[in-house]
Design brief:
globular; TIM Barrel; alpha/beta; 311 residues; ten-stranded parallel beta sheet
Length: 311
């Protein structure tokens, strides 16, 4: 079944109980409703990015405002230690992110070695390195990369209000290169940046219309970081966030829907509603790229209270 923006808007407008029931029904047709995939995210190169993404603390344009120091690409041994620690804590996918517009060839070769280290540990490997040039996706595929993360961020009609240094079409070109290289796609967006419900519906419709849809769909709640243009973004109704999760599940029934950034600001009850709405993946560990995340002990306690198990 195909979903355009109007069809997704109609889902958003359903009574809350009806929407959650429909999402949970779809979820149970394709997944164990009580198993949650756990990924860990490591910043392998922090700060100094040339782009102007309004939500991000790592733009070189706002170093002084956000207090993020420009770091060098991590050494291979540092990545190996972090990946092994993540595996020991129960993560099955290790994601590595670098604050670049896109990787230079020399840096890409070093990152490829990191991918091989992660794979040798028996984990899935995921990267987010920005825009990829010709031939780069093929090199990553040859190294055994499982997933490439490259979010659409928001609906096309709202995109240039968040980012001006590159277009959403450029992101689509990278996604096409990744798909053609045989790598799975991790692609979602950020909710709560001041967008309307129609824009949220547009984003979900764009994601669902990718052929095939992304295998992994991270739904991020904006973390309003001081010093960024979105530090004073208006708060989002929590039920609207849950509705977004439910719409993603209904429109992309076989995708992993990840409850991503912003979990540290969420109550346990809100997270439980998101799981009920079809989220079945989380970032696991005390920190994301530069923002906080619930600690492992808290997540373990929440899983125990809800009868959830990791996978």
């Amino acid at each position: 079944m195909s979903f355009d923006t109007a069809a997704v808007e109609a889902l958003f407008e359903l009574p809350f109980n009806d929407l959650i029931y429909r999402a949970q029904t779809v979820h149970r047709q394709h997944f164990d409703p009580n198993r949650i995939q756990r990924s860990t995210l490591l910043s392998i190169k922090t700060g100094g990015c040339s782009e102007d993404c309004g939500y991000c603390s790592q733009s070189a344009r706002r170093d002084a405002a956000t207090g993020i120091s420009r770091g060098k690409l991590l050494e291979l041994e540092e990545v190996k230690v972090a990946a092994k620690a993540a595996k020991d804590k129960g993560a099955t996918r290790f994601c590595m992110g670098a604050a670049w517009r896109g990787p230079k060839e020399g840096d890409l070769n070093r990152v490829i070695e990191m991918v091989r280290v992660v794979k040798d540990l028996g984990m899935e490997a995921c990267l987010t390195l920005g825009l990829l040039g010709p031939g780069q996706a093929e090199k990553l595929a040859a190294a055994g990369l499982d997933y490439y993360n490259h979010n659409l961020d928001t609906g096309a009609e709202f995109y240039d209000q968040i980012i001006t240094t590159h277009s959403q079409e450029a992101r689509m070109e990278t996604l096409l290169r990744v798909r053609q290289a045989g790598i799975k796609i991790c692609c979602g967006g950020i909710i709560g940046m001041g967008e309307t419900r129609k824009v949220r519906a547009s984003l979900i419709a764009q994601l669902a219309s990718l052929d095939p849809p992304p295998e992994s769909v991270p739904i991020n709640h904006l973390v309003a970081i001081p010093g960024t243009p979105l530090e004073n973004a208006p708060p989002l109704d929590p039920f609207e966030f849950v509705r977004t999760i439910a719409c993603a599940r209904i429109t992309m029934p076989t995708s992993w829907v990840r409850l991503s950034a912003g979990r540290q600001q969420m109550s346990d009850e809100l997270q439980a509603l998101c799981f009920l709405a079809g989220a079945n993946s989380i970032f696991y560990g005390d920190k994301l790229l530069t923002s906080g995340n619930p600690d492992v002990a808290h997540d373990e306690a929440l899983f125990a209270r809800l009868g959830l198990t990791g996978c």
